[in-house]
Design brief:
- With 346 residues, this protein is of the alpha/beta class.
- The protein has two domains: 174 residues, NAD(P)-binding Rossmann-like Domain (Rossmann fold); 162 residues, Dihydrodipicolinate Reductase, domain 2 (2-Layer Sandwich).
- The strands form two sheets. Strands 8, 9, 10, 11, 12, 13, 14 and 15 form an eight-stranded mixed sheet that branches. The protein has a seven-stranded parallel sheet with strand order 3-2-1-4-5-7-6, sandwiched between helices.
- Strand 1, helix 1 and strand 2 form a beta-alpha-beta unit.
- Helix 1 crosses helix 12 and helix 12 crosses helix 13.
- The radius of gyration is 20 Å and the shape is globular.
- Bound molecules: nicotinamide-adenine-dinucleotide (NAD).
- The site of nicotinamide-adenine-dinucleotide has 27 residues, from helix 1.
- The site of nicotinamide-adenine-dinucleotide (NAD) has 27 residues, from helix 1.
Length: 346
């Protein structure tokens, strides 16, 4: 098969990152990206050489782009017509409306975690259910929190055969580029109890019994998860072997808060900037080694999630699953990550 042509519908926080990650791969290309109208994000699309389309098909809206000096190739329908798969990166809750457009264009589709599982009836994260998504028409890459929980819980579950989890999501209030959200001087509990975050893991790994609480705190850079997992009797693990298991798990970084002098999310993000990916992204889930402890059969740990970027490589693997070109999730992950690494080192 030739290069997979990928449309990005919505070129915001997630869309621009997914576009770069696809551009990095040898087996796929960005067929175009959409913007609702001329705005500062168009500049980036043009600079990268991504064909720019309008989110809508009407001529009035398309013509607004040229008035601001941006060359717009056409409307969403034109883009869908030349693509194999669309990655929907629109703000959450627009899914139902957009799904109809994808279905009538007869194109494969991937939604993001702002949409509910019920929209597609199928969800995706590479370590949990790549095979289940092989050759599917459409799916949803789960949210940043669900992706993070899956990365560390799925290998534990696979070793133990069962797992009961209680966790608290300490959530960033807003993304760095978002001036419209808060709180700025308060801690805001999510009063819908339990929160949707933990149970969302069961859309990709139903066998994990998990519940969560969530609070939003005045920070923009990362989420932190505080996790308690009850392992079944006879699991045969200790704290060190759990750390080794995660060391061998793709897209998990383990560092020692005290010894590596990386005690908070501020230092974690500074380390991420040192890696050199654009926007200072951290695709990996960060686990503090000295915050992991197995007491009896109960495991305690903390992990940090770069909310804007942990789902980005998952979208690339998900495209390979939907297009049926790679059935082995570990091979896809390796291919995705090596290509991204080369892309940012040149
Ligand atoms: P965003 O607001 O930064 O970007 C959304 C983009 O879509 C904007 O450019 C907007 O103009 C455009 N848009 C508006 N209406 C549209 C429409 N009808 N069709 C297509 N595009 C439209 O949002 P985001 O943070 O990139 O979130 C996108 C999705 O990814 C959501 O489902 C969100 O829940 C999910 N997600 C976000 C994060 C995060 O931290 N930002 C993390 C994981 C998943």
């Amino acid at each position: 098969m030739g290069s997979i042509k990928v449309a990005i519908n919505g070129f915001g926080t997630i869309g621009k990152r997914v576009a770069d990650a696809i551009d990095a791969q040898e087996d796929m290309e960005v067929s175009g990206v959409t913007k609702t109208g001329p705005s500062f994000g168009c500049e980036l699309a043009i600079k990268k050489g991504f064909p720019l389309y309008c989110t809508f098909d009407d001529d009035d809206r398309i013509s607004q782009f040229s008035k601001k000096g941006y060359s717009c190739v056409g409307g969403l329908s034109d883009l869908l017509a030349i693509s194999d798969v669309v990655v929907d990166c629109s703000p959450g809750k627009l899914g139902a409306e957009n799904l109809e457009k994808y279905q009538s264009a007869g194109i494969k589709y991937i939604f993001q975690g702002g949409e509910k599982h019920e929209l597609t009836g199928l969800s995706y994260t590479s370590s949990a259910n790549h095979l289940e998504n092989l050759n599917a028409i459409g799916t949803r890459v789960v949210s940043c929190n669900t992706t993070g929980l899956s990365r560390t819980l799925v290998p534990l579950f696979e070793h133990c055969g069962s797992l009961k989890v209680e966790c608290t999501m300490i959530r960033r209030a807003a993304d760095p580029g978002d001036s419209g959200k808060g709180p700025i001087n308060a801690i805001k509990p999510v009063l819908k109890v339990p929160s949707h975050h933990g149970p969302d893991v069961m859309t990709v790994k139903p066998e994990i019994e998990i519940n969560s609480l969530a609070v939003a705190v005045p920070t923009t850079i990362m989420h932190v998860h505080s996790i308690i997992a009850d392992l079944p009797k006879g699991h045969g693990l200790d704290t060190d072997s759990i750390l080794r298991m995660w060391t061998d798990t793709p897209r998990v970084i383990i560092m020692n808060g005290l010894e590596d002098r990386i005690p908070t999310t501020a230092e974690v993000m500074e380390m991420a900037r040192d890696i050199g990916r654009k926007w200072g992204d951290l695709h990996e889930i960060f686990v503090w080694e000295d915050g992991v402890k197995l007491v009896g059969d109960r495991l305690y740990y903390f992990q940090a999630i770069h909310q804007e970027s942990d789902v980005i490589p998952e979208n690339v693997d998900c495209i390979r699953a939907l297009m049926g070109v790679e059935g082995d999730w570990r091979k896809s992950v390796l291919r995705t990550d090596e290509a991204i690494s080369r892309y940012y080192s040149t």
